[in-house]
Amino acid sequence: MRILLLGEMMTLKVMTLHEDDSLDLADWDMKVGEIRHLPVVDHQRRVVGMVSDRDILRAASKHPREPVSVGALMTRDVHACLPTVAALDAAAWLLESKRGALPVVDGEGRLLGIVTTSDFVELARRALAGHDVGQPHLRA
After folding, report:
1. Where would I find the H helices in the chain?
2. Radius of gyration from C-alpha coordinates of the chain
3. Model-level pTM?
4. Which comes out higher in pLDDT, residue 123 or 49?
5. Among 57-61, 63-67, 77-81, the range of highest mean pLDDT
6. What gap in Å lies between CA 22 and CA 40, rounded to an integer?
7. Which of 19, 34, 64, 133 is such that its CA lies 20 to 30 A from the CA of 139?
8. What is the spatial distance between Cα 45 and Cα 104, in angstroms, rounded to a whole number?
9. Which pLDDT tens digit goes with each residue over 96-111?
10. How many angstroms separate the CA atoms of 60 and 75, rounded?
11. Contact between residue 86 and residue 5 where contact means Cβ atoms under 8 Å apart
């Protein structure tokens, strides 16, 4: 049996933010993109944080009318993986950490893609439907 790697199932086109972007922009991007997590990158596309829809909800309740930057509320302790990591190991980490997304980076920490819990649910759906998950659909 072949081991599925993160690089084979990650979403390649990833919306990103910078630390000085507003949470309003993050909220808009999430709503338009129908996503729940956005990586925060520096000018070399190295991952420096993550913002989730939950972060935005918390900020809205604590700072209802104040402008807040992404850098003020993002999670800085981001676990990222190389594309050569086994999908099984990444799924286990997501379950254990109760996180919803995992940035996929190169050896320099630059963002290559992202894998979310929704990607794993889709993989499970395809497996349950009898589709070949050894040839995963690469999402653009």
Report:
1. 6-9, 23-33, 53-62, 70-73, 87-97, 117-128
2. 16
3. 0.87
4. 49
5. 77-81
6. 12
7. 19
8. 12
9. 999 999 999 999 999 9
10. 16
11. yes
What contacts 139, CB < 8 A, 6 or more positions away? 9, 10, 11, 12, 119
Cα separation, 18 vs 9, in Å, equals 25
- Give the span between the Cα atoms of 114 and 69, in whole angstroms: 22
Q: Which of 19, 26, 16 is nearest to 53 (CA)?
A: 26
Neighbours of 127 (CB within 10 A): 12
CB 20 within 8 A of CB 71: yes
Structurally, what CATH architecture does the domain formed by 6-128 represent? Roll (3.10)
Neighbour-count burial of 75, counting CB atoms closer than 10 A to its CB (0-12 exposed, 13-18 middle, 19+ buried): middle
Q: Would you state the structure tokens that stand for residue 4, as one six-digit string?
A: 């599925």
Question: Token digits for 97?
Answer: 């950490």
The 10s digit of each residue's pLDDT in 7-56 is: 999 999 999 999 999 988 999 999 999 999 999 999 999 999 999 999 88
